[in-house]
Design brief:
heterodimer, A: mainly alpha, ABC transporter involved in vitamin B12 uptake, BtuC, two-stranded antiparallel ribbon, B: mainly alpha, 4 strands, about 5% strand
Chain lengths: ~325, ~300
């Protein structure tokens, strides 16, 4: 029943997305592309937060680095988009491995502070580096021709290409979560000493999780850079790191695709209330506070919880309680 | 006279600037350490309260004509009371949870406070006059020392010593230390620990606001002045470890000086040197300079 619901929902979403470029008067395709990028960013982030129990407060560094690297490769070196995106992903993943290696030397709250500080370091590097254009950002990045075949200057082509890349990224997130590797990550989240005692090299798994999460965040950043033809300091600013946490928390960090829902909600808030200026920041702050205080399961997590609760079997209810209890530790 | 090719005057000037910055780092990381010790909450909003302190002094000065000295006393109380309110209404609800929720909750508060001041005052800086008694400079012969900067460094040292004294040598401090080590047992002895938590948060926040008033005449007053600072303070806290009060104060001052020296010799790195030091400390001594291995 639940599986049927999920697959029909998935088909509906894909069908709706396929239709978007043909109804620009209903919904702005560029906005949808932006939302897709953030959906992947949030789901990639949740590989660490929800599935490994690591709170990174510096994911903007990965998102922004990929955007800058892709922009540099495509505008200043004149490389095609596929190389630009690949370079962005590789740099982000490498940066993720480096930051991860440093950060996992401490745990919990310290780890969050370390990632925040290292991301700020990355921010200053981009602020001072010559090719980034500092406060102006990197502008007029060409969209190029993908694989020498698909001209991305056409908005319709770009939309489907972005959709395909995001789809692949989300599929990869799903595969990682549901792989033996994902199981190990959850074991680390639930009980690190026990996972260690079972012989898993915890540090390697954590660093790999960091690199994967950063690389996928990088894919999102590279695509965002191509869509907007812009890489800017807002992409590496700590506000962005906070925002991706909010998306994840709001969507539900116990789920795989919940963060995507969070990304839709937060992006919509920015998009439709942009005229209110700093009020949006206040509202986002309030949502943050509310989520932490009373809505820690998030939208999808809550829905999931309610659907599962309706099932009568005691066995399931028991298992769920266990999950909930464990989850409160994250 | 020159030191490694830099005129002594410029060299000492940067050291003093570094000490001034370090003074703010010290007072802020002190407050963070006290709050974390007792409440197990990393107060992301510490920088926002610092900024609020500067803004409240600015508003009081402009609309009520309140002088600098009265502000220095009144503002920490006002902002501290706000902190008390926040603790009672919000923080209290998440004590049982993972400390990370405390970081996220106070991060939300940062967005609300910063957004609020941005709506009311815009993003740009507002000048704040130096009090007349502290204007001017002292000519020490080998260098020119602005009086206000010397005042800030002196006050910060006094504040750090006073905090250390209160925590280590007074009865209230003993309660505080007891509640940090064994909250349940301390409660069993009839000490009102929840009240202690509230007061601690309030004083920590008040301390941040106090630093904000001190900083107002040096920097302009603007909404993001606190959050830029708090990230550096986080790095300092990672370097020093949250375990020791004097440790965080010394680390703060020391890193201020290192930052000043970097400005002299390789100014491009002055914004990042604290983070680089943090990375180095993590590689060599993961628990931090004064830290105990955390659980």
């Amino acid at each position: 029943m639940l599986v049927l619901l999920k697959s029909s929902l998935m088909i509906a979403v894909v069908a709706a997305l396929l239709a978007v470029p043909f109804v620009p008067h209903l919904i702005y395709p560029v906005f949808v592309m932006k939302v897709m990028c953030f959906a992947l960013f949030a789901c990639a982030y949740n590989l660490l937060l929800g599935h490994t129990g690591i709170v990174s407060f510096g994911h903007a560094a990965f998102f922004g680095t990929a955007a800058y690297v892709t922009g540099y490769a495509m505008r200043d070196l004149g490389l095609p988009p596929e190389i630009g995106i690949a370079a962005g992903i590789i740099c982000s993943a490498a940066l993720g491995a480096a930051i991860g290696t440093l950060a996992i030397r401490r745990q919990g709250i310290y780890l969050a502070m370390i990632t925040l500080a290292l991301a700020q370091l990355v921010y200053f590097v981009f602020l001072q580096a010559e090719f980034t254009g500092a406060e102006d950002g990197m502008q007029e990045i060409p969209r190029g021709v993908l694989f020498g075949l698909i001209n991305l200057r056409s908005d319709i082509n770009l939309f489907y290409v972005v959709m395909a890349f995001i789809g692949a990224g989300l599929w990869l997130v799903y595969r990682i979560v549901n792989s033996p590797f994902g199981e190990v990550l959850r074991a680390i989240r639930e009980h690190e000493p026990r996972a260690r005692s079972l012989g898993y090299a915890i540090e390697k798994y954590k660093i790999l999780a960091f690199a994967l999460s950063a690389g996928l965040s990088g894919l999102a950043g590279s695509l965002k850079c191509i869509v907007f033809q812009l890489a800017a300091l807002t992409d590496v600013h700590w506000h962005m790191s906070g925002e991706v946490i909010l998306m994840t928390l709001l969507g539900g960090m116990s789920t795989v695709f919940g963060p995507a829902i969070g990304a839709i909600l937060v992006s919509a808030l920015h998009h439709y209330f942009d005229a209110l200026g700093a009020w949006v920041t206040i509202v986002i702050g309030l949502i943050f506070i509310l989520c932490v205080l009373v809505f820690r399961r998030g939208v999808v997590g809550q829905l999931h919880h309610m659907l599962q609760e309706q099932r009568p079997t005691a066995l399931h209810a028991g298992r769920l309680d266990l999950k909930e209890g464990q989850h409160a530790q994250v | 006279m020159e030191i490694f090719g830099v005129p002594l005057q410029a060299f000492l000037g940067q050291i003093i600037l570094g000490l001034v910055n370090g003074a703010f780092y010290a007072v802020l990381s002190l407050g963070l350490a006290i709050i974390f010790g007792l409440l197990r909450i990393v107060n992301f909003a510490h920088g926002a309260f610092f900024m609020t302190g500067a803004f409240v002094a600015f508003i009081l000065g402009r609309h009520l004509n309140l002088g600098y000295w009265s502000s220095l006393l009144a503002v920490p109380v006002v902002v501290g009371l706000f902190g008390v309110l926040f603790e009672r209404l919000f923080l209290r609800r998440i004590y049982g949870l993972d400390p990370i929720y405390g970081l996220l909750l106070t991060f939300g508060l940062v967005l609300v406070i910063e957004g609020g001041f941005r709506v009311a005052f815009g993003s740009s800086g507002h000048p704040f006059p130096t009090p007349p008694e502290l204007r001017g400079v002292w000519d020490l012969g080998f260098m020119i020392l602005p009086v206000y900067r010397a005042f800030v460094i002196g006050v910060a040292v006094v504040v750090c010593l006073a905090t250390w004294f209160i925590i280590e040598k007074t009865r209230v401090g003993a309660y505080l230390r007891a509640a940090t080590e064994r909250p349940d047992l301390t409660r069993a002895f009839g000490i009102n620990v929840p009240l202690l938590l509230t007061l601690t948060y309030g004083s920590g926040v008040g301390l941040a606001a106090f630093a904000g008033v001190l900083a107002a005449p040096i920097q302009h007053v603007y909404p993001s002045m606190g959050s830029d600072l708090v990230i550096i303070v986080f790095a300092i806290v990672v370097i020093g470890g949250l375990g020791s009060i004097m440790g965080s104060a010394v680390t703060g001052l020391g890193l201020g000086v290192i930052e000043g020296l970097t400005k002299v010799y390789y100014s491009q790195a002055s914004a990042t040197v604290v983070f680089l030091v943090m990375a180095l400390v993590l590689l060599l001594r993961p628990a931090g300079l004064f830290g105990r291995e955390e659980t």
